[in-house]
Write a structure and sequence with these properties.
The chain is an alpha+beta fold. It has four helices and seven strands, in the order βαβββαααβββ. β5 and β6 form a beta hairpin.
Length: about 180
Protein backbone atom coordinates (compact mmCIF):
# COMPACT_ATOMS: atom_id res chain seq x y z
CA UNK A 1 0.00 0.00 0.00
CA UNK A 2 1.31 3.45 -0.92
CA UNK A 3 0.90 5.94 1.89
CA UNK A 4 1.29 9.68 1.87
CA UNK A 5 0.71 12.18 4.65
CA UNK A 6 0.47 15.83 3.66
CA UNK A 7 0.05 19.02 5.66
CA UNK A 8 -1.83 21.89 4.06
CA UNK A 9 -1.40 25.38 5.60
CA UNK A 10 0.03 23.52 8.54
CA UNK A 11 3.48 22.24 9.52
CA UNK A 12 3.32 18.51 10.29
CA UNK A 13 5.43 17.33 13.19
CA UNK A 14 7.01 13.89 13.30
CA UNK A 15 4.61 12.78 16.06
CA UNK A 16 1.55 13.74 14.03
CA UNK A 17 2.98 11.94 10.98
CA UNK A 18 3.71 8.84 13.06
CA UNK A 19 0.21 8.95 14.61
CA UNK A 20 -1.50 9.20 11.20
CA UNK A 21 0.79 6.51 9.77
CA UNK A 22 -0.07 4.11 12.60
CA UNK A 23 -3.76 4.79 12.05
CA UNK A 24 -3.46 3.96 8.34
CA UNK A 25 -1.46 0.78 9.11
CA UNK A 26 -4.42 -0.46 11.18
CA UNK A 27 -6.51 -0.67 7.99
CA UNK A 28 -4.64 -3.79 6.83
CA UNK A 29 -6.67 -5.98 9.19
CA UNK A 30 -9.64 -5.86 6.78
CA UNK A 31 -7.68 -7.82 4.16
CA UNK A 32 -8.81 -5.58 1.34
CA UNK A 33 -6.52 -4.76 -1.54
CA UNK A 34 -5.73 -1.16 -0.61
CA UNK A 35 -3.73 0.44 -3.40
CA UNK A 36 -3.03 3.78 -1.74
CA UNK A 37 -3.98 5.78 1.33
CA UNK A 38 -3.53 9.55 1.24
CA UNK A 39 -3.89 11.63 4.38
CA UNK A 40 -4.29 15.39 4.16
CA UNK A 41 -4.25 17.39 7.38
CA UNK A 42 -5.00 21.08 7.04
CA UNK A 43 -5.46 24.02 9.38
CA UNK A 44 -8.96 25.46 9.34
CA UNK A 45 -9.18 29.11 10.34
CA UNK A 46 -12.57 30.06 8.93
CA UNK A 47 -14.88 32.40 10.81
CA UNK A 48 -12.22 33.10 13.43
CA UNK A 49 -12.40 29.52 14.76
CA UNK A 50 -9.22 27.51 14.82
CA UNK A 51 -9.34 23.81 14.11
CA UNK A 52 -8.10 21.06 11.85
CA UNK A 53 -9.53 19.17 8.92
CA UNK A 54 -8.35 15.60 8.36
CA UNK A 55 -9.10 13.91 5.07
CA UNK A 56 -8.40 10.26 4.24
CA UNK A 57 -8.55 9.15 0.61
CA UNK A 58 -8.29 5.37 0.25
CA UNK A 59 -8.09 3.79 -3.20
CA UNK A 60 -9.15 0.14 -3.30
CA UNK A 61 -8.83 -2.49 -5.98
CA UNK A 62 -11.53 -2.44 -8.66
CA UNK A 63 -11.71 1.38 -8.78
CA UNK A 64 -13.38 1.81 -5.39
CA UNK A 65 -12.40 5.00 -3.55
CA UNK A 66 -13.40 5.98 -0.04
CA UNK A 67 -13.06 9.62 1.05
CA UNK A 68 -13.56 10.61 4.70
CA UNK A 69 -13.32 14.22 5.94
CA UNK A 70 -13.42 15.16 9.61
CA UNK A 71 -13.24 18.55 11.41
CA UNK A 72 -12.14 19.02 15.03
CA UNK A 73 -10.33 21.50 17.27
CA UNK A 74 -7.64 18.93 18.09
CA UNK A 75 -5.62 17.33 15.28
CA UNK A 76 -5.38 13.97 17.08
CA UNK A 77 -9.13 13.89 17.70
CA UNK A 78 -9.77 14.71 14.04
CA UNK A 79 -7.51 11.79 13.00
CA UNK A 80 -9.19 9.42 15.47
CA UNK A 81 -12.72 10.33 14.38
CA UNK A 82 -11.85 10.12 10.70
CA UNK A 83 -10.10 6.76 11.07
CA UNK A 84 -13.09 5.30 12.95
CA UNK A 85 -15.42 6.40 10.17
CA UNK A 86 -13.00 4.96 7.62
CA UNK A 87 -12.83 1.63 9.48
CA UNK A 88 -16.61 1.45 9.54
CA UNK A 89 -16.76 2.07 5.81
CA UNK A 90 -14.07 -0.55 5.09
CA UNK A 91 -15.82 -3.07 7.34
CA UNK A 92 -19.06 -2.57 5.41
CA UNK A 93 -17.22 -2.96 2.12
CA UNK A 94 -15.47 -6.14 3.35
CA UNK A 95 -18.80 -7.61 4.54
CA UNK A 96 -20.37 -6.80 1.20
CA UNK A 97 -17.59 -8.60 -0.65
CA UNK A 98 -17.76 -11.63 1.66
CA UNK A 99 -21.52 -11.81 1.29
CA UNK A 100 -21.29 -12.00 -2.49
CA UNK A 101 -18.56 -14.58 -2.79
CA UNK A 102 -19.26 -18.09 -4.00
CA UNK A 103 -19.28 -20.73 -1.32
CA UNK A 104 -16.12 -22.82 -1.56
CA UNK A 105 -15.73 -26.50 -0.78
CA UNK A 106 -14.06 -25.57 2.51
CA UNK A 107 -17.09 -23.48 3.51
CA UNK A 108 -19.41 -26.35 2.57
CA UNK A 109 -17.39 -28.68 4.77
CA UNK A 110 -17.57 -26.26 7.69
CA UNK A 111 -21.30 -25.91 7.16
CA UNK A 112 -21.73 -29.69 7.14
CA UNK A 113 -19.71 -29.95 10.36
CA UNK A 114 -21.94 -27.34 11.97
CA UNK A 115 -25.03 -29.31 10.94
CA UNK A 116 -23.57 -32.57 12.20
CA UNK A 117 -22.67 -30.93 15.54
CA UNK A 118 -26.22 -29.62 15.74
CA UNK A 119 -27.66 -33.13 15.32
CA UNK A 120 -25.51 -34.85 17.97
CA UNK A 121 -28.51 -35.82 20.12
CA UNK A 122 -30.13 -37.83 17.34
CA UNK A 123 -28.95 -41.25 16.26
CA UNK A 124 -27.73 -41.61 12.71
CA UNK A 125 -29.73 -44.03 10.64
CA UNK A 126 -28.26 -45.76 7.61
CA UNK A 127 -30.80 -46.69 4.98
CA UNK A 128 -29.76 -49.33 2.42
CA UNK A 129 -30.41 -48.37 -1.19
CA UNK A 130 -31.71 -50.59 -3.91
CA UNK A 131 -29.15 -50.69 -6.71
CA UNK A 132 -31.92 -51.31 -9.23
CA UNK A 133 -32.68 -47.58 -9.02
CA UNK A 134 -29.33 -46.75 -10.55
CA UNK A 135 -29.18 -49.17 -13.41
CA UNK A 136 -28.73 -47.66 -16.89
CA UNK A 137 -31.93 -46.72 -18.75
CA UNK A 138 -32.73 -46.53 -22.44
CA UNK A 139 -34.38 -43.38 -23.71
CA UNK A 140 -37.65 -45.32 -24.18
CA UNK A 141 -37.57 -46.45 -20.52
CA UNK A 142 -36.99 -42.87 -19.38
CA UNK A 143 -39.97 -41.68 -21.47
CA UNK A 144 -42.14 -44.45 -20.02
CA UNK A 145 -41.09 -43.43 -16.47
CA UNK A 146 -42.05 -39.81 -17.19
CA UNK A 147 -45.39 -40.81 -18.70
CA UNK A 148 -46.19 -43.08 -15.74
CA UNK A 149 -46.06 -40.25 -13.22
CA UNK A 150 -48.08 -37.15 -14.13
CA UNK A 151 -46.52 -34.92 -11.45
CA UNK A 152 -42.94 -35.70 -12.46
CA UNK A 153 -41.48 -33.08 -14.81
CA UNK A 154 -38.03 -34.60 -15.39
CA UNK A 155 -35.92 -37.68 -14.74
CA UNK A 156 -32.18 -37.93 -14.18
CA UNK A 157 -30.62 -41.21 -15.28
CA UNK A 158 -27.51 -42.88 -16.65
CA UNK A 159 -27.78 -44.00 -20.24
CA UNK A 160 -26.30 -47.24 -21.58
CA UNK A 161 -23.00 -45.46 -22.33
CA UNK A 162 -22.64 -44.37 -18.68
CA UNK A 163 -23.42 -40.69 -19.31
CA UNK A 164 -25.70 -38.86 -16.89
CA UNK A 165 -28.75 -37.56 -18.75
CA UNK A 166 -31.79 -35.45 -17.94
CA UNK A 167 -35.06 -35.99 -19.80
CA UNK A 168 -37.87 -33.49 -19.28
CA UNK A 169 -41.43 -32.83 -20.38
CA UNK A 170 -41.85 -29.87 -22.70
CA UNK A 171 -44.88 -27.60 -22.81
CA UNK A 172 -45.85 -28.89 -26.28
CA UNK A 173 -46.13 -32.50 -24.98
CA UNK A 174 -42.81 -33.65 -26.42
CA UNK A 175 -39.70 -34.61 -24.44
CA UNK A 176 -36.35 -32.81 -24.20
CA UNK A 177 -32.99 -34.39 -23.44
CA UNK A 178 -29.78 -33.04 -21.97
Amino acid sequence: MNKSITGRHFELTDTIKAYADAAVEGLNKYHLDIISANTVISANEKNGKKGFVTEFIVNLKDKNTIVITQNDKDVYAAIDLAIERLKKSLRRHADKIKGHRIMSFKDMGEEAEAVSEYNTDEELEIVPMDLELHKPLDFDEAIDALKAETKRQFIVFNDTEGLMRVMYKRADGKFGLY
